[in-house]
Write a structure and sequence with these properties.
By secondary structure, the chain is of the alpha+beta class. The protein is 52% helix and 7% strand. Among the domains are: 141 residues, Helicase, Ruva Protein, domain 3 (Orthogonal Bundle); 61 residues, no CATH class. The chain has 16 helices and 7 strands. The strands form 2 sheets. It has a 5-stranded antiparallel beta sheet with strand order 4-6-7-3-5. Helix 6 crosses helix 8 and helix 8 packs across helix 16. The two termini are 31 Å apart.
Length: 331
């Protein structure tokens, strides 16, 4: 569901690094006559779905495909980050300190959201920090225009066409105005970076003002993030996991297969806490994650790690959320 967000995050991280890129492709051009025919078809279909004419006029009139978005969608880096490099970029000390400040600043609201919905505040803050640097980097593209560009391009047109109609539905319901519906080049929106379909399914009006505002209303941002996690299986009586020490000769295929065993079974196999002490006695279903292979760091991950993967299907991302949440919480 959040594959696109994962792609966006990975690209943002790589763009921030001093990397070498593949040779530039030919400049992106569009057949504007076909674009106008296509856009008219979209407008007609949206109208048939019940979208108000005023919303269609405000959102679709005069828009043109954006070449930069297609360049970003097609651009492929020449290398991939190791987990160590990824964590260095995504969980720096600066973000940990800012996360602690944000947790303290919004403590009352976060505690209320956490108690009512069932997600620990430190995880809400960690997601907020990784997705948009605590609301600072939410993207400057007009979401409707970005999605229309990607839907017209054809590479993943069916997916983005659906997201486009979801975006128009959000506007039709009055949660945000067309000029303020901004987000990433791939259409991920607001401080929580929800794709329109995620907004439709998981965003909530936590402050009860009649709008689900993940752009500027902190209560809705926190409430929507928590609601997403809870709906995909989050358990607030558990943490996400922990870093562990693997025994010599550990069978790495168990991690590659994402095999889930009770904690005690891993203990019996020689897995220990990082300091060598015994694992917790509670028999949570756990898996071993070794993001850089058997010679790198190893983690024991619980159900909440797997819930985070429903937000973004990347082990790197889910591990980073857990590690940042631990450090924000003082662990």
């Amino acid at each position: 569901m959040r594959v696109i967000q994962g792609l966006v995050l990975g690209l943002m991280v790589l763009l921030a690094a001093p990397s070498a890129w593949a040779a530039e492709k030919e400049p992106v051009t569009f057949d504007m006559a076909k674009w106008q025919v296509w856009l008219d078809e979209v407008r007609a279909e949206a109208g048939a779905k019940g979208i108000q004419q005023t919303i269609l006029d405000q959102s679709l009139t005069g828009i043109e495909p954006i070449p930069r978005i297609i360049e970003l969608d097609r651009r492929q880096p020449e290398f991939t980050l190791t987990f160590a490099q990824y964590v260095e970029r995504v969980v720096p000390d600066r973000r940990v300190q800012k996360g602690r400040q944000m947790l303290a600043q919004h403590r009352a609201l976060l505690d209320k959201v956490g108690k009512e919905i069932g997600v620990q505040p430190r995880f809400i803050v960690a997601l907020w920090g990784i997705e948009t640097d605590f609301g600072r980097l939410t993207g400057g593209f007009n979401v409707v225009n970005a999605l229309a560009t990607l839907a017209f391009d054809g590479r993943r047109s069916a997916y983005f066409r659906k997201e486009l109609f979801d975006a128009l539905q959000i506007l039709d319901e009055g949660h945000i105005t067309p000029d303020k519906m901004t987000g990433s080049w791939a259409g991920a929106m607001g401080q929580a970076q929800f794709m329109p379909s995620s907004f439709v399914n998981f965003a909530i009006d936590y402050d009860k003002d009649g709008r689900r505002d993940i752009w500027t209303t902190q209560a809705d941002v926190f409430g929507s993030a928590a609601n997403y996690l809870k709906r995909v299986g989050w358990k607030d009586d558990q943490t996400w996991g922990r870093e562990v020490r693997l025994p010599a000769g550990f069978d790495a295929s168990l991690a590659e297969a994402r095999e889930i065993k009770p904690i005690g079974a891993w203990q019996a196999m020689g897995v220990r806490n990082l300091d060598g002490s015994d694992l917790p006695k509670r028999q949570l279903p756990a898996q071993i994650v070794i993001p850089d292979g058997p010679e790198g760091r190893a983690f024991m991950a619980y159900d909440n790690f797997r819930a985070t993967l429903r937000w973004n299907r990347s082990n790197y991302f889910a591990l980073a959320v857990g590690l940042l949440s631990d450090r924000i919480g003082g662990n």
